[in-house]
Amino acid sequence: MLVLLVFIIFFHIVSAALLFIATIDNAWWVGEEFVADVWRICFNNTNCTEIGDTFQEFSTLQAVQASMILSTILCCIAFLVFLLQLFRLKQGERFVLTSIIQLMSCLCVMIAASIYTDRRQDIHSGNPEFYDMTTDGRYGYAFILAWVAFAFTFLSGLMYLILRKRK
């Protein structure tokens, strides 16, 4: 049982790390001369422009930003709730609250990545100086990590739902 518990804790920490990297790192959409994410756009790795109200599709990016931040916060809260429930629950009870919070985190990261996938072309062509970005780029590793984090948080949520506290 101890090995299973260590595996679940490690899996949850990896999920949280993936969410942090996907939320913070500037590699959701990359090209030869630029990198972009939901926070800023950088040309030649030196000329960075913060994404703000000047962009036409800023409300879409705000939804992606909020969903990624919320998913990261919920994942951390789920871990703390798990640790509390580990010592408070009676034997044989399930970690239902932890599972619900982790599945909400999974839903938030799925919403963020789905919005970005659907509206990426609109987001990066909202400003005339960035028109080349929509055709010359590709999805970056942080975007892929967001989808991997979705799978990890989903599996983690299911593991908590199935897991019973045993000796």
UniProtKB/TrEMBL annotation:
Subunit and partners: Interacts with PTK2; regulates PTK2 activation and localization. Interacts with ITGB3; regulates the levels of the heterodimer ITGA5-ITGB3 integrin surface expression. Interacts with P2RX7 (via C-terminus). Interacts with ITGB1; the interaction may be direct or indirect and ITGB1 has a heterodimer form.
Residues spanning the signal sequence: 1-16
Main location: membrane
Transmembrane parts of this sequence: 63-83, 95-116, 139-163
UniProt similarity note: Belongs to the PMP-22/EMP/MP20 family.
Listed InterPro entries: EMP-2, PMP-22/EMP/MP20-like, PMP22/EMP/MP20/Claudin, PMP22_EMP_MP20
The keyword Metal-binding appears for this protein: no
Keyword list, A-Z: Cell membrane, Cytoplasm, Golgi apparatus, Membrane, Nucleus, Signal, Transmembrane, Transmembrane helix
Name of this chain's protein: Epithelial membrane protein 2
GO BP, one annotated term: cell adhesion
GO cellular component, one term: apical plasma membrane
Protein task: Functions as a key regulator of cell membrane composition by regulating proteins surface expression. Also, plays a role in regulation of processes including cell migration, cell proliferation, cell contraction and cell adhesion.
Cell compartments where the protein resides: Apical cell membrane; Cytoplasm, Perinuclear region; Golgi apparatus membrane; Membrane raft
Record GO terms (molecular function): protein kinase binding
Organism expressing this protein natively: Oryctolagus cuniculus (Rabbit)
Family matches, as Pfam families: PMP22_Claudin (PF00822)
